[in-house]
Batch of 2 targets.
Target 1
Amino acid sequence: MSLSTSAPAEPAGVVEAPAISIRGLRKTFGDVVAVDDVDLDIANGEFFSMLGPSGSGKTTVLRMIAGFERPTAGRIQLDGVDVTAAAPFERDVHTVFQDYALFPHMSVVDNVAYGLRVRGERTKARRERALQALETVRLAHVAGRRPSQLSGGQRQRVALARAIVLEPKVLLLDEPLGALDLKLREQMQVELKQLQRELGITFVFVTHDQEEALTLSDRIAVFDAGRIQQLGTPREIYEQPSSAYVAGFVGTTNLLDSATSQWILGVAGEHAVRPERLRLSPATDTEPAGTGEVRVEATVVETIYLGTGSRVHLRTDGGTELIALEQSTGFDTGEDRGDTVTVRFARADVVSLSSGS
Ligand SMILES: Nc1ncnc2c1ncn2[C@@H]1O[C@H](COP(=O)(O)OP(=O)(O)OP(=O)(O)O)[C@@H](O)[C@H]1O
């Protein structure tokens, strides 16, 4: 796996240790290899996401960074200091879980102040700081309520306030928005991103939601079976997926196997092209393919209206299934099933996928 995508650049002459540095990290549970030889550097102030399907090992990596799990092999450094064997409380990180883990019998402000109490801070000071943290997540007005008197989104924000009041260098977030409905989730995504920018804290975010990872992150690690399949910016991951796995997991894509590539593109090897790159025109368009363009005839299998546009499912003469995403302007997708259309796309939009992954 290549680590060529570097973290945000440092000013010349400044050598700063990464917020988190992981080398050769491995974790097994009996016969199960949960995490397999992971190398990773996360920069200070970075919004870093670990993305992958259930069971791909991302939570286990997070738990090892937090100190809740001991690695089977490898080492973890925080700010240049080896913490592989350190207890969770000895690490300058804080974890926000999906289930919030708020104390139901305490008021919101007492929930937020709890960590400061454990640290032995005086009552007045910790109340002030807790209220300040609640202000940051815009919840000072519900400070006296119990968690049960809050909405899901508000509870999530209390959990965040409880974490940021401790001013950790690193915030670990394990599917923190997983329990929220879509609308609230989207709203919280914006708030989370703003909060991270304001505070400058390093965020390590675990999610199985590719859209969430693309929206929020400076960089993303895509996990599969305990390994990082690709590491890069959202744009790199989306536009230059390194394998069929990443191309298929992050967004929808048209995968062309080697035989199909040979037939449509004139070259062997596996390739991918995103649905929004396909342009459709009626079969009456007999113009040959232009320079750097691919042209193929296909039959409309199904057209699905999406509001902002349409998703058109197609099948070529050779039996290859393709998906085209049409904006509501342009081609009139009022085409009937069974109609023949011309599909065009630029060669520059075709990504060659590494073999064997
Ligand atoms: N405490 C444990 N004991 C045994 N196996 C475990 C334990 N924790 C995790 N595993 C296994 O390790 C693998 C990776 O799990 P992990 O929770 O890290 O994946 P994940 O990508 O975070 O999944 P999810 O999104 O479902 O949380 C899975 O096969 C899981 O069953």
Note: The pocket of adenosine-5'-triphosphate is lined by residues 29, 32, 34, 52, 54-60, 208 (CB under 6 Å).
Target 2
Amino acid sequence: MTALLEVEDLTVRFYTEEGVVTAVDGLSYRIEAGETFGVVGESGAGKSVAALSVLGLIDDPGRIERGEVRFKGEDLRSMTDAELRSVRGDEIAMVFQDARAALNPVYTVGEQIAETIEHHMGYDPAAARDRAVRLLDRVGIPEAGTRYSDYPHEFSGGMCQRATVAMALSCEPDLIVADEPTTALDVTVEARVLDLLADLADEFDVAVQLITHDLGVIAGTCDRAMVMYAGEAVERAPIEELYYDPKHPYTAGLMSAIPHVGDDRDRLQTIPGTMPDLIDVPSGCRFHPRCPFAEEACTRTDPALVDPENGEAATLETERAAACLEYTEGLTGGLDYSVEVDGETNERAEDDDGGEDDDGREDEGEEGGSDE
Ligand SMILES: Nc1ncnc2c1ncn2[C@@H]1O[C@H](COP(=O)(O)OP(=O)(O)OP(=O)(O)O)[C@@H](O)[C@H]1O
């Protein structure tokens, strides 16, 4: 079965004066029809470049060097610009971080949506207006009929983002690519917009590629996710598995950096160090300079994305995949971390060479039952 979107071995470089930036390196993933797929990683991981490549929007110093992008089984990379534009207008829609900038300040919000509907769906002006009002209402704009005639500057940030979601839905696309759609919003508005996106994805049966630097954002929204680091996928998994049992130390690091309500937003600093310069990436595993479990082998061998159960190379169909030498060569010290989810600590299920149970066996204390 072909998935809605299949990206295979995608490699994108930018030829800059400072050098060649390999922004995306051998990236593979698939998105099934109707599912919400998260792409997570710190700034500079290559998330946006990967998405823009799918949309055929990589410009001049940039070049797609390698790889395939198939949408509904059709090779997007062999399409003409005109064909691509029509796919972008009709079948793949985009929602960006800066919603206000995505709206044209000189037209009313409603006009812009109606114009898109007329243009792409062939509606007459009255029908297009009608549909635009209904969509504005559906995304939660109060008094949509009146607010139709507001200009973008008369909308709050959250309302602008709702309006761009309405715009994205207006042509009944099969895929919405949402790049940090809620980063500019405050936490409560963010939560509402994410809920809306998830509800609409369900209701309109549209797939979403949700790009974010915040693993917390995808937790309640996505079905599956991919974690990117320095241009590569380091882990792919169904969301609960990613959350409760991260297989890659970078994912585990992101987990411990999830902001809780009331926290500062940018807490990813809890993983010491920064993303490497993509002109000159570290040898071996790109994450090794920041990885608390790195061993000598990690400085030499670039780990392939494999099924952590058996170490076999991951294909597009592999549900659970991670790129760490632990799952192929085996690290002498193993991966020794635990993650805390909703106040519960999840130890990695390691059966390390016996013993070491010397600090009492707390794992028997069930009698009292855990009251909340
Ligand atoms: N037009 C460009 N010219 C040169 N380098 C670029 C260009 N666009 C992106 N890059 C480089 O590609 C790399 C990946 O960038 P990208 O924007 O995809 O990261 P990201 O994970 O989406 O981060 P962010 O959340 O900050 O957008 C970065 O090192 C960036 O500097």
Note: The pocket of adenosine-5'-triphosphate is lined by residues 14, 16, 21, 23, 41, 43-49, 61-62, 213, 278 (CB under 6 Å).
